[in-house]
Amino acid sequence: MAIDLDRCIGCRTCMVVCKLHNAQPPGTWWNRVFTPGSGEHQVPTLQKGRPQMYFLPVACQMCENPPCQKVCPVGATYIDDRGRVQVDLERCIGCRYCLAACPYQVRQFNWEDPKKTKGKVGYIEGYEYGYPFPYRDKNGRLVYTPDRPKGVVEKCTFCAQYTDNGEKPICVQVCPARARFFGDLDDPDSEINEVLRQRQAFRLKEELGTRPKVFYLPPAIPHK
Amino acid sequence: MHRKNLVLILALLLLLASLSAWVYQVRAGLIITHMRNPFSWGLYIATFAFFVGIAAGGLIVSSAVYLFSIKALKPFTRVASLSAFASILAAAIIILPDLGRVDKIYLLLLHPNFRSPLIWDVIVVSSYILLTFLSVYFQLLPDWKREGRGFLNRWTQRLSPEEVEKISITWSKRIAFVGLPIAILIHTITALIFATQASRGWWYTAILPADFISVAVASGAALCLLIALLSMGREGFPQYASALAILARIAAWALAVHLFFLATDLVIHWWWANPDELELLSLLFYRYGALYALEMVLTIFSMVYFLTSWGISSPRALLSGGLVLLAGVFIHRLNLLFPAFNHFPLSLTLPGAENEFWSYPVALGEFRPGDSIFVSSWPYVPSLWEIFIDLLPFALVLIICSWMISSYSILPNTRKETTKTISSPFAQNLDF
User: Fold this and answer.
1) N or C: which end of chain A has fewer CB within 10 A?
2) Is B101–A208 a contact, with Cβ atoms under 8 angstroms apart?
3) How near does any CA of chain A get to the CA of B296, in Å?
4) What is the mean pLDDT of each run of 10 residues along chain B (432 residues)?
5) Is B353 helix (H, G, I), strand (E, B) or coil?
6) Chain B residue with minimal CA distance to A204?
7) Contact B358 A32 (CB under 8 A)
8) Is A2-217 CATH 3.40.50.720?
């Protein structure tokens, strides 16, 4: 995935649809969008004495060298056949070593039964959201279920339930500014490789050597 | 005898309280703790590291006796082995309430990921539990044979007391041989759980395993000292005053090594003046300054105190010095977590911006009406439930030690035929 920070308008549409489509419990957000340097989103900060602002969406960086996968004592976190980092919700024992290890802090723990949390929020009786069926990978490992068990870790799956069927992740599908690009990094003809050839790209915390598969295209022109 | 029963009853009550709190946690979820996504390990993990450390007692006493020929400590090998067994078991136990799915713990055996330092720790900690258990067991076998009691010793019925004694010596030596490297490994690998994580600046240092060993030697020696003092009382003291003083001095010098490691580590964090590192230090010295100061005062005080002749002069002095030391080490373990978690790894340095150093907010994992879900730090303080559950390992150590000490001859002056035992070949064996 590539995210064009020049195009991102910080509207947080991706954040909200990600949450809804993936049935994230209240308090849990796989995808975050914030304004770097600012205490409040969408509030400019001073850059060399002049106000400026850009936005930085962060979800799982799908590392090629993922610390979360290496620390997982039971192999619940794994790299699947498409190079995505996934969490087997039935394998996870809830030790939270991965939360300590992930430099991007994208991992979220189910501190209580999500059903109970939803009850506390006060949704209308019977209101359910999210892709309604459990989703298993080719090997039968449970990577998504609308009703997460309490005590396990979850995070962005690159919408495994959609991308396995040729669709794009929901954040890419809905971005009103078309700031997100998604495709096969191994295919030289893919749109994402075309974008990465044309533009200078950077990755978050490059110095840690995690080798993320999420690339950021920096803002080209200073914002006024 | 009355006092020992009282300790046992108190320990059982603590155990009951912590177990019921744990049952509640299993039902309600870890939401009843104050850990959250940005601060995901708390009191349980600090307690785990603490107990792994104090399990070093066995290692120190036997290596002091056999590697450095400090003969005065020889009568303490049994109590040292026992304290090691009780502590390492306690360390393993407190991991259980920290797991979100403790019901799936068998997956550690079914699908171990050998790249994970946690699996390395599972291996060495369980080996150490087994070894320390066997060490206590083989040391007690000859006594059991003589007194016609004990457990798991039916197979010795057909043997003569001499044969049992011989088995006890041979196997104690074998266990010690395997036990020494494993004893060092439990501290090294527990430290590596933290030290391998480049995303956490506070942990990511090669000094950590060495420091864990020094802290373990200090706190392990202090625990041995406390157990021996508490259970043999004022009467036993004159006979073993010099041996107990050696334990206190070992603890003090180990603390000196620990403080040296700590100081070099702090200098390296500070010198380059990387804003990221300075942020870490400001957490340590300002935000958690009071707690850090308390740790320093307690550890430095107990070190200096044990090096003076006053600090080792009486049972009361040794007892209070040991307690201060253990309290200091416990706070040291808590301080392993505070600067590590509240220094968010996803932080950006923004050249020329008004806030040059900015942490990316993290979702808490809890819905709080009227409060933000995204935070840039989390003021973790253990919840009351967490504290109750955390009593579990303490209760366990109390129960194991008080029960074993009152039932069997673990302590030097409670052994019958003391002179005979010491001059017998049994006293020559290596043990943990």
Assistant:
1) C
2) no
3) 26
4) 79 96 97 97 98 87 76 85 94 98 97 98 96 92 89 87 91 84 94 98 97 96 90 81 92 97 97 92 96 98 96 93 98 97 93 86 93 94 97 96 87 51 38 40
5) strand
6) B346
7) no
8) no
